[in-house]
Specification:
The chain has about 130 residues and is of the alpha+beta class. The protein is built from four helices and six strands. The longest helix is centred in the middle third of the chain and has 9 residues. The protein is globular.
Length: about 130
């Protein structure tokens, strides 16, 4: 494939990319999840996803059903993109973890305002 900017030839690795709504209980945003993060949530390989797209098959209900089974914790990036001469705000999931996977990862979270460490959610409670 030839890059439209620099005109250099490059290899392209196919990855699945889908739009989802992320809801934290206070509101929701539309975002995109792609690559290995989405591939672990859906029952399709990248090749199956591509073939279904090319054949114009509608398997959105199967995708929604597969993804709804998971609760995820994710890092989301906001960016602005030009669309028809207008700046448009977009969101992209940078990294996603299922809550099942996250249960095995120690977490150190700090608040933005005070930089105070929030206790690890998985650590045993101290009474």
């Amino acid at each position: 494939m030839r890059c439209p900017s620099c005109k250099e030839e490059s290899k392209v690795v196919a990855r699945t990319r889908i739009g989802i709504a992320v809801d934290d209980g206070t509101g929701s945003i539309n975002t995109v999840i792609f690559g290995l993060d989405v591939e672990k949530l859906i029952p399709f390989t990248t090749v199956q996803f591509w073939e279904a797209h090319n054949e114009e098959l509608n398997f959105s209900p199967k995708l929604a059903s597969a993804i709804e089974k998971y609760s995820i914790v994710c890092l989301i990036r906001y960016y602005e993109a030009d669309y028809q001469g207008q700046k448009e705000g977009k969101y992209s999931i940078v990294k996603a973890y299922t809550t099942e996977k996250l249960a095995h990862i120690p977490i150190a979270i700090t608040t933005v305002e005070t930089n105070e460490k929030i206790p690890d959610l998985h650590a045993p409670a101290v009474c």
